[in-house]
Write a structure and sequence with these properties.
single chain; alpha/beta; Rossmann fold
Length: about 400
């Protein structure tokens, strides 16, 4: 099937999360992506869970399987001269190279952009790093939690009497991968028009500084009036009902009722609440004791209704609300299935599994799983064969640990 990026060729020297997610977004829309993995155990993400049936295996990491659909895999030791020469040969026939080594590593390999540009002037090279290729922090080591903490938003997360909290898991790395894919596409389109490539410097730190996950409001607040945003105690919120609430079969969330108070009375089938002077405006809700008086009505009502009942009533009444769903409920949800979001992929080792599907829906830009995530080094013969290496030569390279 012809896809939007079917003419694009990518050399992928990335591992873990941010880089592989960048190249996955390209591969799933048609790009021909060759993933270069270290000899031995390959991309370290192969050793990260969750694993199928909790059995650690290089070909059964759910993280790796999801991040590397539609890619080819070759193994290569970049510390060998033959390995570096192979990269230079592969660069001749690709549009894009994506790497996420520490700054200076590619230069140490003799594979810096200046060298590769001389081989392929149209090459777009995207480098993803913690803090960018320049600046005082260039060589700092970091993890996802370090990057999130340094960006300012973490300072305002959590309870005021306790230490700050980070947002869930590796969201920062996935967001960095999205931004890297966007930047790569812009550089690629420019190269197609001008015939000249460029080096794209993606800093995970800067993708977070420019993100809207609370950080933008905090930065603007500080710039505007030099105020540092504080950690709010959710128990002290005066606008209600707001936040996460328990119900008959789990939890649901309401967001920012405030001035839309009449919708609460409609949702609860209590029209007498609409004009109740204790709750009918924000200032009344802030008066001592009124929140507790409302909760005497609200908590029993919630516990008498299921998530589905509450969401149906809330949406009908105009209340911003939604269920807190388990992953089992998400996968079974009729809405996502009606839209065809999930994809069933059959992997030669992991078997047939359900994966998160396309990020966007567009009739003229199909998202297609052409192949599952590759087995480690499964495409060595094909890729290196096109460079002119015989099976005998490749056997020698395998025996010496170069591929």
């Amino acid at each position: 099937m012809e896809q939007a990026l079917s003419d694009m060729k990518v050399l992928d020297l990335t591992w873990y999360i941010a880089g592989p997610y960048c190249t996955k977004l390209l591969a799933d829309y048609g790009a021909d992506v060759i993933k270069v993995e270290p000899t031995g155990e390959g991309d370290p993400a192969r050793r990260m869970g969750p694993f199928l049936n909790d059995e650690p295996h290089l070909e059964k990491s759910g993280l790796f399987l999801d991040l590397n659909t539609n890619k080819k895999s070759i193994t290569l030791n970049l510390k060998s001269e033959w390995g570096r020469r192979a990269i230079r040969d592969l660069v001749k026939d690709v549009d894009i190279l994506v790497e996420n080594f520490r700054p200076g590593v590619m230069e140490g390999f003799g594979l810096d952009y200046k060298t590769l540009e001389a081989i392929n002037p149209r090459l777009v090279m995207t480098s993803i790093s913690n803090f960018g290729q320049t600046g005082p922090y260039r060589d700092f080591r970091a993890s996802e939690i370090v990057i999130y903490g340094m960006g300012g938003a973490m300072f305002c997360n959590g309870l005021p009497e306790k230490a700050p909290l980070k947002k869930a898991l590796t969201a920062t790395l996935f967001q960095g991968g999205v931004m890297a894919a966007n930047a790569t596409m812009m550089a690629y389109l420019l190269a197609q028009e001008t015939g000249e490539g460029q080096w794209v410097d993606v800093s995970l730190m800067e993708t977070q500084l420019g993100a809207v996950d609370r950080r933008m409001a905090q930065l603007l607040t500080f710039q505007w009036n030099k105020t540092v945003t504080y950690r709010e105690d959710p128990k002290g919120r005066q606008v209600y009902p707001m936040g996460i609430h328990r119900c008959k079969d789990g939890f649901f969330e309401c967001i920012g009722i405030g001035v839309n108070w009449p919708s609460v009375g409609r949702m609860m089938d209590m029209p007498e609440l609409v004009d109740d002077p204790r709750f009918s405006n924000v200032f009344a809700q802030m008066q001592p004791g009124n929140k507790e008086a409302f909760e005497v009505l609200w908590i029993p009502w919630c516990l008498e209704h299921t998530k589905a009942e509450i969401i149906e009533k809330g949406q009908k009444a105009g209340v911003l609300c939604g269920p807190l769903a388990s992953m089992e409920e998400v996968v079974a949800d009729p809405h996502w299935n009606a839209r065809g979001f999930f994809a069933e992929i059959d992997h030669p080792v992991a078997g047939k599994l359900t994966y998160p599907g396309r990020p966007i829906k567009a009739d003229d830009m199909p998202w297609v799983i052409r192949t599952p995530a590759p087995l480690l080094g499964q495409d060595n013969d094909e890729v290196y064969g096109k460079l002119g290496y015989s099976k005998e030569h490749l056997a020698t390279l395998r025996a010496t640990g170069i591929i």
